[in-house]
Amino acid sequence: MLQLNHINLSVSDVPALSDFFERCLNFKVTERRGNNKFAVLEGEDSFVLILMHGKDVTTASYPTMFHVGFIVKDEATVRATHQQMIAAGYEAPPPARIQRGGDPTFGFYHPAPGGILVEVSTPIVAMKET
User: Fold this and answer.
1) What are the residue boundaries of the VOC domain, all occurrences included (predicted)?
2) What is the pTM assigned to this prediction?
3) How far is residue 74's CA from residue 26's CA, in Å, rounded to a whole number?
4) H helix runs in 7-106, sequence order
5) Which residue, 59, 67, 49, is CA-closest to 5?
6) Which terminus of the chain, N or C, has less C-beta within 10 A?
7) Is the distance from CB of 6 to CB of 20 less than 8 angstroms?
8) Using alpha carbons only, how large is the chain's radius of gyration in Å?
9) CA pair distance 91, 82, nearest whole angstrom
10) Hey, where are the domains in the chain?
């Protein structure tokens, strides 16, 4: 059986994106090398994210809607993550219903430092009926 071990992203600003993942998404930097050109981060679920400086990377380097997505358990967690980003000084758009052709979700996309788009969402079915 194959198991995903890590994802390696080439980004324009390793320190800024590392800081974003630590402050907003509860990752921990476990290793830094090369004058802040390389960082290994570990998520709460032991997922490993590697960030490497790409001197030619810009916000337009990745295809439109390429993103790193985080699925959370409920609407309250989406809202709490959004507030964590706001408190950290980022201008994340407010969470809303997202319909992309499949089942709807509740969440938001945020252009993080380093040229990466981040999504935080939860399936609508996980939301409490109000």
Assistant:
1) 3-123
2) 0.86
3) 17
4) 14-25, 75-87
5) 49
6) N
7) no
8) 15
9) 9
10) 6-126
The residue to which tokens 């810009």 are assigned? 58
Task: Look up the CATH number of domain 6-126.
Answer: 3.10.180.10
Overall average pLDDT of the 113-117 stretch: 86
Are the C-beta atoms of 41 and 27 separated by less than 8 Å? yes
pLDDT at residue 59, rounded to an integer: 62
> What is the distance between the alpha carbons of residues 47 and 60, in angstroms, rounded to a whole number?
26
- In whole angstroms, what is the distance from residue 111 CA to residue 39 CA? 19
Task: Give the confidence band of 60 by pLDDT, cuts at 50, 70, 90.
Answer: low
| Tokens matching residue 76 | 């309250």
- Tell me the one-letter amino acid at 25: L
Tokens of 90: 């980022």
Mean pLDDT of 34-46: 93
Which residue is associated with the tokens 């295809």? 63
Position 126 pLDDT exceeds 80: no
